[in-house]
UniProtKB/TrEMBL annotation, chain A:
Cell compartment(s), UniProt: Membrane
GO terms of molecular function: symporter activity
Bilayer-crossing regions: 6-25, 46-71, 77-95, 116-134, 146-167, 179-198, 247-269, 281-302, 392-416, 437-457, 463-484, 496-514, 534-558
Any one annotated GO CC term: plasma membrane
Protein name: Cation acetate symporter
Signal peptide: none
Natural source organism: Halomonas nitroreducens
Chief location category: membrane
Automatic annotation (TrEMBL), chain B:
PROSITE patterns registered for this protein in UniProt: PROKAR_LIPOPROTEIN
Keyword Transmembrane annotated: yes
Protein name: DUF4212 domain-containing protein
Transmembrane segments: 18-41, 53-73
Organism encoding this protein: Halomonas nitroreducens
Length: 588, 86
C-alpha cells in the first residue's frame, strides 16, 4: 500500500470515529450546544480539556520551535502548563460556582454593565480569531503534506473540514468527540517518540531518554547534540539566554493567557460540582503533561536525527548529495515547506547557521550560504519519516495532528459563536430571539470566523505556535485581569473593569500590530520584528504580560476614584467564593 | 445563621493563604529555578546539562501537577471543615 493510501486510511478512520460520536451525542437544546448539560466526570472532562487545549500549536508546531531554539523556547513548555495552576486556584472553581454559560456573561453580571459584557465579547473574539489563524496554519501544513498538495490548497481543505466539523456539532458532541481525539493525538505523538528514543538512547521512555546517554557516542544525548550543532555554527542547544526579562514575560504571558482563554474556561462550567472544577484542572494537566513531557525529547532527538541525515559522516565531513536526499525531503519539497538551493553548485546539501561568526569556517569549507530551508512547523510531522519509521506510524501522526488542530478550532469557534449569539445578540441587541434563531446566529458567526482565519492563515504572522502565543497575550492582557479582579476584589467597579480591559487590549494589540502588521495583514508593520527594535527587548509575543499589569493598574486606580459597586454586587462576589449552593446555580 | 459570617471569612482567609503558598512554589520552580536562578544551579549536572534546564523542560511541569492536586485536596478538607461544601 502506498504511503498516501495509508495516510488517507488513518485520517479517514479517525474522522469516521469522531463523526460517529458527534451523531450519537447530537446537541438538542441551546444549553446542550454550549455546556453539555453539566454532567461530565472530572477525568473525562480533563481529557476533553486536554484535547481542546492541545492544538496544532502544541502538537505540530511546538517541538519544532524547541528544536530550533533549544532551552530558550522552554517558555512554551512552562507557559502552557503553568497556566493551569492559575486556573485551578484563581478562576475555575469560582466561575463554576457562578454558573453561567459564557465568560462575557460573568463579566457583564459582576460589573453590572452591558458595556462591560460587550467589551469582553470584543476581547474574546480578537483573542479567539487570532488563535484560530494559528490552527488553520497548522492544519494547512498537515493537510498539504498528507494529501500531497501545496500549502495554500492544504489550508483551503482544512477550512472546509473545520467548517463541517464545528458548524454541525455543539459542545456535547464535542466533549465526547474530544475524548476520542485526545486518545488519537496522544497515541500518535508518543509512539514515534518511543521508537526514536529507543533508537537513539535505548530508553523506551522519551522524557528519560532526553537525559540519557546517546547510543554510539557514549556521550549524554544533549551533549552530543550541542557538539554537532556548534560545529555548524549554531548556538548550543542548552545555552542560557541573555534576555531573561523577555523570557520571564513571555512565560507569564502564556500562563495568564491559558487562564484567560474562553474556550478552556467554559470547560469548567460542565462539571457537576465546584470541587470537580479543581480536580478537572488537575486531571487536564496530567493528560496535557503526557504530551508536554514528550515534546522536549522529540525536539532534541529530531534535531539530532535531522543533522545526522544531512551529515551522515559527522558535521565536520561532507554533507549528503542532493540527488541522494531521503524520500521525506523530496515529499516535503512538494509542499514548498522545504526548499533547497544549491548556492555553491557542488550538488550537496549544506545546512548550517549562516552567521558572521561562522563565515570563515564556511568559506574554508567552500560553502556559499545555507542551502536548505526547513519550515519549523513540519518537524513533528516529518519526525517519523526522518527516523525511518514504518508507514503506519506516519499515517498515525497525520491523524493525530489533524485531531489536535480540529478539536481546538472547534472549541474556539464554539466560544466565538456563543459570545456573538448569546452575549451580543441575545444579551443586548435582541433579547427575544428564539432558540432556533440563536443557534442560526451561532452557526453564521462560526462561518465568518473560519473565513477570516483562513484568509489570514494563508500568510500567518509567524509559525503556528507563535501565532497562538499572540492570542494568549491578548487574552491574558484583557480577560484574565477582569476575571481575577471580579472574584478577588469587591472594590473594582464597572468603570474600572471596562477601562482596564480596553487599555490592556488596545495596548497589547498596538504593540503586536506595529511589529506583525496591522490586523496581521502582511507588509503593514511599522517596524521590522527583530530584537533590536523591541522596546526594552520585549518581543510582541511577551507583551501580553505587560498589558495585563497595565490592565490591573488602570482598573484599580479608576475604581478607587469612583463609587464602590452596589451592595448586591458585593454579595454576588461573596457568594462566588463559597462552593455551598452551587447546585442551584447550575440549574439556572 | 448568626455565626455564618465569621465562619465564611475564616474560610476565605484560609483559602487565600493556601493560594499564596501554591503560587510561591509555582513561581519558584518556573521563574526561579528554570529561568532567573539557572546560573546558580549551573553546577548541578543532569544528563549532559544542568538542573535549571531540567526544571525548564520537565521539573516545572511535574511540580505544577503536584500543586494543583495538593490544592484540590486541601480545599476539599477546608470545604468540609467550614461546612461550606456542596
Amino acid at each position: 500500500m502506498s504511503q498516501f493510501a495509508i495516510n488517507v486510511l488513518f485520517v479517514g478512520a479517525s474522522f469516521a470515529l469522531y463523526i460517529g460520536i458527534a451523531i450519537w451525542a447530537k446537541a438538542g437544546s441551546t444549553k446542550d450546544f454550549y455546556v453539555a448539560g453539566g454532567g461530565v466526570h472530572p477525568i473525562t472532562n480533563g481529557m476533553a480539556i486536554g484535547a481542546d487545549w492541545m492544538s496544532a500549536a502544541s502538537f505540530i508546531s511546538m517541538a519544532g520551535l524547541i528544536a530550533a531554539g533549544g532551552y530558550a523556547n522552554s517558555t512554551f513548555l512552562m507557559g502552557w502548563t503553568g497556566g493551569y495552576v492559575l486556573l485551578a486556584t484563581l478562576l475555575a472553581p469560582y466561575l463554576r460556582k457562578f454558573g453561567k454559560f459564557t465568560v462575557p456573561e460573568f463579566i457583564g453580571d459582576r460589573f453590572y454593565s452591558k458595556k462591560a459584557r460587550l467589551v469582553a465579547v470584543i476581547c474574546l473574539i480578537v483573542a479567539s480569531v487570532t488563535y484560530v489563524i494559528g490552527q488553520m496554519a497548522g492544519a494547512g501544513v498537515a493537510f498539504s503534506r498528507f494529501l500531497e498538495v501545496d500549502a495554500t490548497m492544504g489550508l483551503i481543505i482544512a477550512a472546509i473540514v473545520v467548517f463541517f466539523y464545528s458548524v454541525l456539532g455543539g459542545m456535547k458532541g464535542i466533549t465526547y468527540t474530544q475524548v476520542a481525539q485526545y486518545c488519537v493525538l496522544i497515541t500518535a505523538y508518543t509512539i514515534p517518540a518511543v521508537f526514536i528514543s529507543l533508537e537513539l538512547t535505548g530508553n523506551p521512555l522519551p522524557p528519560l531518554g532526553l537525559f540519557s546517554e546517546h547510543d554510539g557516542s557514549g556521550m549524554p544525548l544533549l551533549a552530543k547534540l550541542n557538539e554537532v550543532i556548534t560545529e555548524l555554527g549554531f548556538n548550543e542547544y542548552t545555552a542560557d539566554v541573555d534576555n531573561k526579562l523577555n523570557m520571564v514575560l513571555f512565560t507569564l504571558s502564556l500562563m495568564i493567557g491559558t487562564a484567560g482563554l474562553p474556550h478552556v474556561i467554559i470547560r469548567f462550567f460542565t462539571v457537576p460540582k465546584v470541587a470537580d472544577a479543581r480536580w478537572s484542572a488537575g486531571w487536564a494537566l496530567v493528560f496535557i503533561a503526557l504530551l508536554y513531557l514528550t515534546a522536549p525529547a522529540v525536539a532534541s532527538m529530531a534535531r539530532l536525527n535531522l543533522m545526522t541525515t544531512i551529515y551522515p559522516d559527522g558535521p565536520t565531513a561532507e554533507p549528503i548529495q542532493y540527488d541522494e536526499r531521503p524520500n521525506w525531503v523530496r515529499e516535503w519539497e512538494v509542499t514548498g515547506l522545504i526548499q533547497y538551493e544549491d548556492k555553491n553548485d557542488d550538488g550537496r546539501i549544506q545546512l548550517y547557521n549562516d552567521t558572521e561568526a561562522f563565515a570563515p569556517t564556511a568559506e574554508q569549507r567552500g560553502w556559499a550560504g545555507n542551502e536548505l530551508e526547513v519550515n519549523r512547523d513540519i518537524l513533528v510531522l516529518a519526525n517519523p519519516e526522518i527516523a525511518n519509521l514504518p508507514g503506519w506510524v506516519i499515517g498515525l501522526i497525520a491523524a493525530g495532528g489533524l485531531a489536535a488542530a480540529l478539536s481546538t478550532a472547534a472549541g474556539l469557534l464554539l466560544a466565538i459563536s456563543s459570545a456573538i449569539s448569546h452575549d451580543l445578540i441575545k444579551g443586548s441587541i435582541n433579547p427575544n430571539i428564539s432558540e432556533k434563531g440563536e443557534l442560526l446566529a451561532a452557526r453564521i458567526s462560526m462561518s465568518v470566523a473560519i473565513i477570516v482565519a483562513t484568509y489570514l492563515g494563508a500568510n500567518p504572522p509567524g509559525f503556528a505556535a507563535q501565532v497562538v502565543a499572540l492570542a494568549f497575550g491578548i487574552a491574558g492582557a484583557s480577560l484574565f485581569p477582569a476575571l481575577m479582579m471580579g472574584i478577588f476584589s469587591k472594590r473594582v467597579n464597572n468603570k474600572g473593569a471596562i477601562a482596564g480591559m480596553l487599555t490592556g487590549l488596545v495596548f497589547t494589540l498596538v504593540y503586536i500590530f506595529v511589529y506583525k502588521g496591522w490586523f496581521f495583514i502582511p507588509g503593514t508593520n511599522n517596524l521590522a520584528d527583530i530584537p533590536a527594535n523591541w522596546v526594552l527587548g520585549i518581543s510582541p509575543l511577551s507583551i501580553g504580560a505587560v498589558g495585563a499589569i497595565i490592565n490591573f493598574a488602570v482598573a484599580f486606580s479608576i475604581s478607587k476614584a469612583t463609587a464602590a459597586p452596589p451592595q448586591e454586587i458585593q454579595d454576588l462576589v461573596e457568594s462566588v467564593r463559597y462552593p455551598k449552593g452551587a447546585g442551584m446555580a447550575a440549574d439556572h | 445563621m448568626a455565626d455564618e459570617k465569621p465562619n465564611a471569612e475564616a474560610y476565605w482567609a484560609a483559602n487565600l493563604r493556601l493560594i499564596a503558598g501554591c503560587l510561591v512554589v509555582w513561581a519558584l520552580v518556573s521563574y526561579g529555578c528554570a529561568i532567573l536562578l539557572r546560573p546558580l544551579l549551573a553546577g548541578i549536572p543532569v544528563g549532559g546539562t544542568d538542573l535549571g534546564f531540567w526544571f525548564a523542560q520537565q521539573g516545572s511541569i511535574l511540580t505544577f501537577i503536584g500543586i494543583i492536586f495538593f490544592y484540590a485536596w486541601k480545599m476539599n478538607r477546608l470545604d468540609k471543615k467550614f461546612g461550606l461544601g456542596e
